[in-house]
Amino acid sequence: MGPLVGSIVAACLERHVGCRGLAAGKTPIPCDFCAPITTPAIQHISKMKVLSLALVGLCGYAGSALAACPATPDAWTAVSAFQGSAAVANGGYAGTECRLDSTINVGAGGAASGQVNWTGSAVEPSYRAHFIVNVDTLTSQALLDTVAIYGSASQSSGSGVDFTVFGNGSVHNLGYSVRNDANPTGFETGVVPLAAGENHIEFSLATGSSTFKLWVNNHDENNPTKSVAINNGAAFTGIDTTYMGLAGPAPQYVSHFGGKAVGFDQFDSRRQTFINY
Question: Is 84 in contact with 103 (CB distance < 8 Å)?
């Protein structure tokens, strides 16, 4: 899956995507993948390895020998920028050298975006992802200063999970919306406060009757920050699309924070195992 990288191996070995703690000059190690994957996926894996030195927008580097960060986050399928931007910047999080800076332009409309996105060739019924976000530039962010920061979905069956950020004037909050076909509204929502500085966000989502789990700055796999029972019908087949970066800003967000960059780093995704940080 691409940023969720995989390989067909004789035995299913737990491996790391290579985005975090990557030694200088090393090719990223694929994540754990037990199931067979299709030829298009294999082709994408080859592309990911070729682009291993461009994994900066989503991963950053620790101890990289590069003189400077690459100009674009090429390991993603595309950059989606409308009245906004998504650009690689020097100075990553948790020890990396580079990060992704996402910005909504001054005067932008509600359809504005500054994201990187991945679109895969196969849907994943079980999906975990982790990323870092730092919203310290959004000083005194209020309740109505809302903006989306991340989404994972199915191209054929719609949204799986979405995250937004908003505030109360002093504390930033992470809002989540996860699909639940058993709920008449079609989804479950909730809020988790964010810390100052870097915030590690990890979630797991699966099809059918399952539990959506969310960890925010939390190392304990057995005690997620949020656990939500969900039951999605056959119409929801899983995840094959991911977006990371700012999008869909409220008018108040644009008015107060247009032109301000929000940083992202260390994206990692897998089928099953806890990613941690």
Answer: yes
**What is the rounded CA–CA span in Å between residue 14 and residue 270?**
10
Q: Which sign, positive or negative, has the C-alpha torsion 138, 142, 144, 149? A: positive
For residue 14, the SS3 value is coil
| CATH code, residues 39-270 | 2.60.120.200
pLDDT at 71: 80
What pLDDT is attached to residue 120?
86
213: closest CA among 231, 232, 227?
227
* CA dist list (Å): 206 to 86, 152, 177, 185, 216: 29, 12, 14, 19, 19
Please work out, in degrees rounded to the nearest 5, the angle formed at the alpha carbon of residue 160 by the alpha carbons of 159 and 164: 80
Give residue 93's pLDDT: 94
Q: How confident is the model at residue 135 (pLDDT cuts 50, 70, 90)?
A: very high
Query: What pLDDT is stored for residue 66 in this prediction?
Result: 42
Domain boundaries, the chain: 39-270
